[in-house]
Amino acid sequence: MDVRKIVVVVEDVDVSRSALQWSLSNLLRYGDLLTLLHVFSATKSMSKKKARMLRLQGYQLALSFKEICNSNFFNTNIEMIVTEEDREGRKIVAMVQEIGASALVVG
């Protein structure tokens, strides 16, 4: 069986958590790689301190999603990516292509 790469977009909304739960129950198989992807909006005029704070919040959010995975499935292969972009949709598509994901789950 081939290892699939599944990307779940992480956002601080209940629908995103539901999408993660759905993918854990219906999509993930043993040995698959699950990528938790959080993209936060940043502008060129934003201060470095503000951008750092948004990145930290993104990692904390991704860690909370990882906790959901660990409480439901042991030994799940999980990676977390937190990145910034001024237009979220394009960055998500670029990351999915870069990872070579076979599935994208968005809540």
UniProtKB/TrEMBL annotation:
Q: Which residues form the UspA domain?
A: 4-107
Domain of life here?
Answer: Eukaryota
Cross-referenced InterPro entries: Rossmann-like_a/b/a_fold, UspA
Protein name per its UniProtKB record: BED zinc finger,hAT family dimerization domain
